[in-house]
Write a structure and sequence with these properties.
The protein is built from 14 helices and no strands.
Length: 309
């Protein structure tokens, strides 16, 4: 997969992720742990169907033999699934999105500390500008009456788990490349089952607190859509994309979930963004586009430099 195609797919992944807020606001009766349980349960069903279609019965053996890294990644997915949806039901969407916006900084920091990555200046600048844009957009909303610190603290688990997961996946792929160079028969790490492990764990831990169920048939339809199209499909794609895109770049592109989430809330729930949101959104999108443009120029210049040397 080319870098450009990987970026395009990551944008699609981010768009699909961004539908959770607006859909949740249209639920009739389901609340809190029940919302989280049903979304995770439908996500798990979709993932079982998809992975069994891809792997057959070998899927269960892959999970048993996956090793510690697979289960650590699965725990990260569980935290992301559970904490995000709980936070959405406990506080405003804006507060949750502001909290998630620290993910690129955490991912870059984890990659620098644990993987010894040297990040280009353009990536640091883009992260900084994007962070300013998000703070500009949602600062007032996050501090508005009704914003819950409990919800923000629950949401904080999402970027921490996400940064840990992206850096872990990056480390596994780097280690595979080193081993593959010495022994071409070495197989690449298979981390797709971790997405299923996370969904199953999330559904299991929220089920006792979700009872008794109160979701209406309409709620179940909406939550089923979230489980399949907002979680299962984009999360599988995101794992595949870690083989092409570095962890900090994935986390930076994922910031677009903030922009897409605002637009969907505007179109789907009548929450029109004001001038602050539009200005902040321009900063975020501008930072992402500028970073990708510079990266493209560097990749195109690299072969020419190599030939000249």
């Amino acid at each position: 997969m080319t870098h450009g195609r990987a970026v395009s797919l990551m944008l699609l992944v981010t768009l699909m992720w961004s539908t959770a807020g607006v859909v949740t606001r249209h639920l009739e009766a389901a609340r809190s742990f029940e919302v989280t349980f049903w979304r995770s349960a439908f996500n798990a069903l979709a993932l079982v169907a998809a992975l069994l279609w891809m792997r057959g019965p070998r899927l269960w053996a892959d999970i048993r033999q996956g090793g510690a890294a697979l289960w650590v990644s699965g725990l990260c997915w569980m935290v992301m699934y559970t904490n995000f949806m709980l936070a959405i039901t406990m506080t405003t969407v804006a507060t949750v999105l502001v909290t998630l916006a620290i993910a690129p900084l955490l991912t870059a920091l984890f990659a620098r500390v644990f993987l010894r990555h040297t990040l280009p200046t353009r990536t640091w600048v883009a992260i900084g500008v994007a962070g300013l844009g998000i703070a500009w957009m949602f600062g007032h909303q996050a501090l508005a009456p009704g914003a819950s610190m409990t919800g923000a603290l629950v949401a904080l688990g999402v970027p921490i788990a996400g940064a840990t997961n992206w850096v872990l996946l990056q480390h596994l792929h780097q280690r595979h490349h080193q081993r593959h160079a010495a022994d071409p028969s070495v197989q690449a790490p298979d981390m797709l089952p971790a997405v299923l492990i996370g969904a199953l764990l999330s559904a299991a831990i929220t089920l006792p607190m979700a009872l008794p169920f109160s979701a209406t048939p309409r709620d179940l339809g909406l939550l089923a859509g979230l489980g399949v199209f907002q979680l299962a499909i984009p999360c599988l794609l995101a794992v595949v994309l870690t083989r092409v895109l570095p962890a900090p770049e994935i986390s930076l592109l994922a910031l677009l979930e903030v922009i897409f989430g605002v637009l969907l809330a505007w179109l789907g729930a009548g929450e029109a963004p004001g001038p602050n949101a539009l200005t902040g959104g321009a900063l975020v999108i501008g930072a992402l586009l500028f970073n990708e443009w510079l990266a493209l120029r560097e990749r195109r210049a690299a072969p020419v430099t190599g030939l000249a040397a």
